Amino acid sequence: MTGIGRVSVGVVLGSAVTSVLVTVLLIASVGKLLSFAEFSQTVRELGLSRRIVQPTAVTVILVELALASALLISLDTRRTALLVALLFLTFMSVSVFAVWKGRQIGCNCFGSRHGIELGWITAARGGLLAAMAIGVVALSNLGIEGLPSLTVAFVVALSALHWLRQWSHAGAPSIE
């Protein structure tokens, strides 16, 4: 394989992985925003003081939106992807904390509970997403970054598939 072939595959890979991260962050932030009271309750159940629950919930949503936007437009991809990895590692840690404390806390990771609780599955998901973000950092360190236009196309396709799946299962569109 020539150097040009490796870069082309790297660009597509970078765009694909970045688009998964952007899509997850967008769906999660919009879902949390649309069911803010439920998400705030999840934050409260983690043991935070009542007076900082809502500011914390708002901060999480804004951070997710900001990171999704920065990745989408390739704004300092390396640093942004590193911050995304830290965010997902934080979410993983929160899941492990819930298990360690023996708390049964509704996930509400994407805006509604649907019976999913913080636990080993959500911890594994956070770890996988963090690893994907670290992969974007590694590609960026090699000078390989996704194309914003290709990333946008992938995000649109992934989002459309997500909501089509939801629509076909529920009979009407929903955020999760």
TrEMBL record:
<dbReference type="GO" id="GO:0016020">
    <property type="term" value="C:membrane"/>
</dbReference>
<keyword id="KW-0812">Transmembrane</keyword>
<keyword id="KW-1133">Transmembrane helix</keyword>
<feature type="transmembrane region" description="Helical">
    <location>
        <begin position="146"/>
        <end position="164"/>
    </location>
</feature>
<feature type="transmembrane region" description="Helical">
    <location>
        <begin position="12"/>
        <end position="34"/>
    </location>
</feature>
<feature type="transmembrane region" description="Helical">
    <location>
        <begin position="55"/>
        <end position="75"/>
    </location>
</feature>
<keyword id="KW-0472">Membrane</keyword>
<dbReference type="Pfam" id="PF07291">
    <property type="entry name" value="MauE"/>
</dbReference>
<dbReference type="InterPro" id="IPR009908">
    <property type="entry name" value="Methylamine_util_MauE"/>
</dbReference>
<protein>
    <recommendedName>
        <fullName>Methylamine utilisation protein MauE domain-containing protein</fullName>
    </recommendedName>
</protein>
<feature type="transmembrane region" description="Helical">
    <location>
        <begin position="81"/>
        <end position="100"/>
    </location>
</feature>
<feature type="transmembrane region" description="Helical">
    <location>
        <begin position="120"/>
        <end position="140"/>
    </location>
</feature>
<feature type="domain" description="Methylamine utilisation protein MauE">
    <location>
        <begin position="13"/>
        <end position="136"/>
    </location>
</feature>
